TrEMBL record:
<dbReference type="InterPro" id="IPR032710">
    <property type="entry name" value="NTF2-like_dom_sf"/>
</dbReference>
<dbReference type="GO" id="GO:0005737">
    <property type="term" value="C:cytoplasm"/>
</dbReference>
<feature type="domain" description="TAP-C">
    <location>
        <begin position="626"/>
        <end position="680"/>
    </location>
</feature>
<keyword id="KW-0813">Transport</keyword>
<dbReference type="Pfam" id="PF22602">
    <property type="entry name" value="NXF_NTF2"/>
</dbReference>
<dbReference type="InterPro" id="IPR005637">
    <property type="entry name" value="TAP_C_dom"/>
</dbReference>
<dbReference type="Pfam" id="PF03943">
    <property type="entry name" value="TAP_C"/>
</dbReference>
<feature type="compositionally biased region" description="Gly residues">
    <location>
        <begin position="226"/>
        <end position="247"/>
    </location>
</feature>
<keyword id="KW-0539">Nucleus</keyword>
<protein>
    <recommendedName>
        <fullName>Nuclear RNA export factor 1</fullName>
    </recommendedName>
</protein>
<dbReference type="InterPro" id="IPR018222">
    <property type="entry name" value="Nuclear_transport_factor_2_euk"/>
</dbReference>
<keyword id="KW-0433">Leucine-rich repeat</keyword>
<comment type="similarity">
    <text>Belongs to the NXF family.</text>
</comment>
<dbReference type="GO" id="GO:0016973">
    <property type="term" value="P:poly(A)+ mRNA export from nucleus"/>
</dbReference>
<feature type="region of interest" description="Disordered">
    <location>
        <begin position="1"/>
        <end position="133"/>
    </location>
</feature>
<dbReference type="Pfam" id="PF24048">
    <property type="entry name" value="LRR_NXF1-5"/>
</dbReference>
<dbReference type="InterPro" id="IPR032675">
    <property type="entry name" value="LRR_dom_sf"/>
</dbReference>
């Protein structure tokens, strides 16, 4: 029996046709006998039978871009090309823009005389090279659909250093997508990833090579082909299944409209019977049962884009001021057909979507551009059922996509809770240099500040011990340095303050944080004597009186002082808290000093202010007498320095003209005067 079987098998011949079909007959011998359990396999590249690992292929496979779905050969056994192509998380997020990736390389399948479902899967690997012949690139912004489309594109154009023209803007789930026909523009957009800030955080941007968008290339198809013979394949992108033959059908074109004149006339007649002139309302309920459209040989499935696009086109031409649109009772599951509703009906105020089959409220994002809609009917949709006992959640979910809704399902809604935003039309209040909650306290504090810094700015820092009388016995003091602002003209850092700096951003040790707070007035003044010598510029001081009560007094000082012999400019902020003392006096119980390098803008504004005061003959400082002002102008003319630096030099010499001149020569010869010290 076995011998008869093998003899019969030896007389069988297999012929492979050009269309991929196989003919089995007699009078031909196999190329080689199957030994050791290995099957004979057909090499798709050469069309010959050869020996290989026993593969078994079945199922439906994925073709390349614009290619086909054919036999996925789930490879099992020994040798063969098994290639794994990881797919990007953003691949094929637009269901009709890009083809699917290949699920394998050169596949071989064991000969199956009963015919397989392979679809003839040959080598259909997708080209994933970074360049493409059409130079089209797809730009994907994850979660971009939550932002206004026009605003988002405007921000991208404003931030990109390469101009671009966006094409085919659309939303895919939560992402916003569009196409550009310029590789340099795509790269510029990719560089903007996580650089634009919105209320929800940074905007992510992904770019990838792409086929031309649908509106640029009319050949984008999705088809399902059934191969003749043994195979059955699925064609995607306009190709044919490798399994032999098969036909394709075009994909849905969401911008397609009816063009036949006779059908347009039928549609106009239909719209005239459904239009209410008094209410400016169009009734499109139950289109599938309309006799006018049925006699006109129309596909009355309203969810097909062609019909709805044509209706909206005619509405825009014949009645652009439409106020109310009723699309209820049409078994709609998705609202893609209304994506251009805001463009075609810019004055629409009422929309009826009730008695349909919409399963998700997120479908309303397709019409989120309709800012004029204030009335919405959405009852009797599956999406409403999940909010059966949650009216407030239902309203919030609707307003997430249509915030202008005032009436929902016939119920007038309360106004949405919003933040009180400043009206842009109102003018902002005038900016004042300083703030004071008590004018009487301000005059007292000015005298205190003048006396405090007169002692603090002594040439000998040990003289700061006289400030003991200004502090309370339980006084607290700390100092912080802020070194993130750099000044190229100032090479000296803040090293003299680092050992005392209590910067909570950089300090990690709690013990260190505690030890840097000086308690009791003796410790406070002892630290003040260790800090570098200073000369505060009183004309730069800004005094803010924050709080005045019977128990305490809170005020802040901000300004610039010159440090050390080389007169390095520093910017500072000092916060004081005072408590009342007998004799109408107050003592400092809390003192905090923040020091940083002065910015170039601060130095320039200070120099300009002093120069203008000197040139107009006004007093440079309210504390200078007429004799001192005359000495300042004479010293500035002879030294060639700006009035600010001349004033610093005179102050450090206690208004001794000869001593100031000697100090100026010393600093100039030592190269310690910055170039900005000279000039008009």
């Amino acid at each position: 029996m076995a011998g008869t079987f093998f003899k019969a098998m030896s007389d069988i011949s297999v012929k492979v046709g050009s269309d991929g079909s196989r003919n089995v007959g007699n009078n031909a011998a196999m190329d080689r006998e199957d030994k050791g359990g290995r099957g004979f396999q057909r090499n798709d590249n050469g069309g010959r039978w050869q020996r290989g690992g026993g593969f078994r292929g079945r199922g439906r496979g994925r073709g390349g871009r614009g290619g086909n779905r054919g036999g996925r050969g789930g490879n099992r056994g020994g040798s063969g090309n098994r290639e794994y192509h990881p797919r990007s998380r953003f691949e094929n997020d637009d269901d009709d823009q890009d083809g699917d990736a290949s699920m394998g390389g050169n596949r071989s399948g064991r000969f199956n005389p009963y015919g397989g479902r392979g679809g003839g899967g040959g080598h259909r690997e997708r080209d994933r090279s970074p360049t493409n012949s059409s130079e089209w690139w797809k730009v994907i912004i994850p979660n971009g659909s939550s932002h206004d489309r026009e605003w988002l594109v405007k921000q991208l154009k404003k931030s990109s250093n390469v101009p671009f023209e966006e094409k085919n803007c659309h939303n895919v789930k939560e992402s916003f997508c569009f196409f550009v026909n310029d590789e340099s523009a795509a790269k510029a957009l990719r560089r903007l990833n996580n650089t634009i800030t919105t209320r929800d955080g940074k905007i992510g941007i992904v770019t990838k090579p792409s086929d031309p968008p649908r509106d640029m290339n009319g050949s984008s198809h999705r088809g399902r082909g059934r191969g003749s013979g043994n195979g059955r394949g699925f064609s995607r992108g306009g190709g044919f299944s490798q399994g032999g033959g098969g036909s394709t059908r075009p994909a849905r074109n969401f911008g397609e409209t009816e063009t036949a004149p006779e059908k347009l006339e039928v549609l106009k007649e239909f719209l005239s019977t459904r239009y209410d002139h008094n209410a400016v309302k169009l009734d499109l309920t139950e289109i599938g049962s309309d006799k006018t459209l049925r006699t006109g040989d129309f596909d009355t499935r309203i969810w097909q884009p062609k019909l709805m696009n044509t209706i909206l086109m005619l509405v825009n031409e014949l009645c652009p001021n439409l106020k109310s649109l009723d699309i209820s009772k049409n078994r709609l599951q998705r609202l893609n057909i209304l994506a251009n509703l805001s463009q075609k009906c810019p004055s629409l105020e009422e929309l009826n979507l009730s008695h349909n089959s919409v399963k998700y409220l997120d479908e309303l994002s397709k019409i989120s551009d309709c800012k004029t809609i204030t009335k919405l009917w959405f009852s009797d949709n599956p999406a409403k059922e999940q909010y059966e006992n949650d009216d407030s959640g239902y309203v919030s979910a609707i307003r997430k996509h249509l915030p202008s809704i005032k009436e929902l399902d016939g119920v007038i809604l309360p106004p949405p809770i919003t933040f009180d935003l400043v009206d842009d039309k109102k003018t902002l209040p005038t900016v004042h240099k300083s703030y004071s909650c008590n004018t009487e306290a301000t005059s007292i504090l000015k005298n205190f500040v003048e006396g405090f810094f007169k002692i603090y700015d002594s040439a000998d820092t040990n003289n700061r011990q006289e400030l003991l009388q200004a502090y309370h016995n339980d006084a607290v003091f700390s100092v912080t340095t802020h070194n993130t602002i750099s000044n190229k003209q100032n090479s000296k850092g803040l090293n003299d303050y680092f050992n005392h700096s209590r910067n909570l951003v950089t300090l990690k040790s709690m013990e260190k944080k505690t030890s840097l707070v000086k308690n009791k007035k003796l410790s406070v003044v002892a630290l003040l004597t260790e800090l570098p010598a200073t000369r505060h510029l009183l004309e730069s001081l800004i005094l803010d009186v924050c709080l005045v009560t019977n128990e305490c007094l809170v005020f802040n000082l901000k300004g610039i002082f010159l440090e050390g012999k080389d007169l390095t400019p520093r910017s500072f902020t000092r916060s004081f808290v005072g408590v009342p003392e007998s004799g109408a006096k107050f003592l400092l119980i809390n003192d905090h000093l923040t020091v940083r390098q002065a910015t170039e803008k601060e130095i320039a504004s200070l120099e300009n202010g002093i120069t203008q005061s000197s040139s107009t003959g006004a007093t440079v400082s309210p504390n200078l007498s007429a004799e001192q002002q005359e000495m300042l102008q004479r010293f500035s003319q002879q030294s060639g320095m700006k009035p600010k630096y001349s004033l610093d030099c005179l102050l450090s010499s206690n208004w001794d003209f000869q001593a100031a001149a000697a100090k100026f020569n010393e600093l100039k010869q030592g190269g310690k005067l910055p170039p900005t010290a000279f000039g008009v």
